[in-house]
Design brief:
Blueprint: E1 5-10, H1 20-34, E2 42-45, E3 49-53, H2 59-66, E4 72-81, H3 85-99, E5 105-112, H4 121-135, E6 140-141, E7 148-154, E8 159-162, E9 166-170, E10 179-183, H5 189-199, E11 203-210, H6 217-234, E12 236-243, H7 245-254, H8 260-279, E13 283-285, H9 298-305, E14 312-313, H10 321-330, H11 334-337, H12 359-367, H13 371-380, E15 383-388, H14 391-394
Parallel strand pairs: 5-6, 5-7, 10-11, 10-13, 11-12, 13-14
Antiparallel strand pairs: 1-3, 1-4, 2-3, 4-8, 4-9, 7-8, 12-15
Helix pairs in contact: 5-6, 7-8, 8-9, 8-13, 9-12
Length: 405
């Protein structure tokens, strides 16, 4: 079908009162970023809907991108018709013939913002209903829960017809809840945590620790590719790679084996908090799930969290592993996450880490390190990459990503 427009309905924005206009503005910006590859589009936000005029762009490709924009309740591809009933009848029949199978139930639902039009909403519903009795006698009128609804929007400039209502991603527009830093490993859980943070309107930047030569370029590229899977939800995401080799080697040489993991994660958290303070982040997000591994017992969380007062958000903390895997499959990060490239969390991992580390001992062992110096040198070696949401970009290698030094 040659659609002329996609009509977007807002999600939770309807509850936002005086902030509504700011939320609509943010959603408008996010949709514009998500659709940057379609230059012919005209995007018009209004108080209750947002209209995307296709101007010849591929509606299927545009809707595929819209499906990942948080803050959208639903959207409908629409056909623009002149405000003459003969034209409406012709276009409505063509649309119904293409999208509504024989024997389906249907109803007509009209909204009219142009009150000068010759037919009111009820008259339009009856007019089209009578028309289909003659031209689609196989269809059954059903006012409650029909298989299809022919939606008619009478506006000043034209009439718009649609038969599909496609559910959007829901949630809140990314950026309306501030910025946070996501601690991105190469595992299954942290990308899922990032997805949930984005869904609640949090703008995230990825923080990934790498330790060459112990971790490979493949492991680093894997983390960047995981970021490309989440980038469409935000338009683009900053990827921050933090060199961690010196810190891990120093901890390995200084700290007792049972506390290697605890002290290492304390330094990771310190560095992430420092980056957040430098870059305007208000919180830290990670993929910890209570009790799955030694570092995620409540006792470990106490010993590790001790280094910062910044809020730490754990979206998957109470989810079962099977639940997390299901979401990872849905957002297409699972296959990447299980690729066998070692990251900082797995190298130097002791065979028997403390599952209930003592807070005072953790502080004591960390005090043996030159924490300030180690952090200063690590932060000096940080590299930042901007990862955008485009099919071509997502399938390209690291060398096509713009480095923002």
């Amino acid at each position: 079908m040659n659609y002329s427009e996609i009509m977007v309905r807002y999600g939770e924005l309807s509850t936002k009162g005086k902030n509504r206009q700011a939320f609509i503005g943010r959603l408008h910006g996010n949709i514009t970023k998500a659709l940057h590859e379609f230059p012919a589009l005209t995007i018009r936000p209004k108080r209750d809907r947002l209209h995307i005029e296709l101007n010849g762009e591929d509606s299927t490709a545009v809707m595929a991108r819209l499906s990942k924009v948080f803050g959208i309740q639903s959207y409908s591809p629409s056909v623009k018709v002149a405000k003459e009933m003969a034209a409406v009848h012709e276009a409505a029949l063509a649309l119904m013939n293409e999208t509504v199978p024989e024997g389906s139930s249907y109803k007509v639902y009209t909204r009219r913002s142009d009150h000068t039009f010759e037919l009111d909403t009820n008259e339009m519903n009856l007019n089209l209903g009578d028309f289909f009795v003659d031209h689609r006698p196989d269809l059954k009128v059903q006012m409650r829960q029909p298989d299809f609804t022919l939606r008619v929007e009478v506006r000043r400039e034209a009439i718009y017809l649609s038969t599909q209502t496609i559910l959007g991603a829901g949630g809140m527009p990314v950026g309306t809840a501030g910025k946070a830093m996501l601690m991105l490993s190469g595992g299954i859980d942290s990308p899922v945590a990032g997805y949930y943070a984005l869904k609640r309107g949090v703008d995230i930047e990825m923080v990934h620790f790498f330790s060459p030569p112990y971790t490979s370029d493949s492991a680093l590229n894997k983390a960047k590719q995981l970021t490309t899977k989440l980038a469409p939800y935000a338009g683009y995401i900053k990827f921050i790679q933090v060199p961690f080799t010196e810190i891990q080697e120093t901890i390995k040489a200084t700290v007792p084996e049972g506390y290697l993991m605890t002290v290492q994660r304390r330094l990771m958290l310190r560095l992430t908090a420092a980056l957040a303070e430098k870059r305007g982040g208000l919180a830290i997000v990670n993929g910890e799930s209570i009790g799955q591994v030694a570092s995620q017992t409540l006792e470990s969380m106490v010993a590790i969290n001790d280094v910062t007062t910044m809020p730490i958000i754990r979206p998957v903390a109470t989810m079962d592993k099977t639940e997390i895997i299901k979401v990872a499959e849905d957002i297409d990060t699972y296959a990447l996450s299980i690729m066998p490239f070692e990251d900082c969390c797995t190298i130097f991992a002791p065979p028997s880490p403390k599952t209930k580390p003592n807070l005072d001992k953790s502080r004591y062992f960390e005090s043996k390190l030159d924490v300030a110096g180690l952090m200063e040198r690590a932060l000096a070696g940080v590299k930042i990459t901007e990862i955008k949401s485009s099919d071509e970009f997502m399938n390209q290698d690291q060398d096509l990503i713009t480095e923002l030094l």
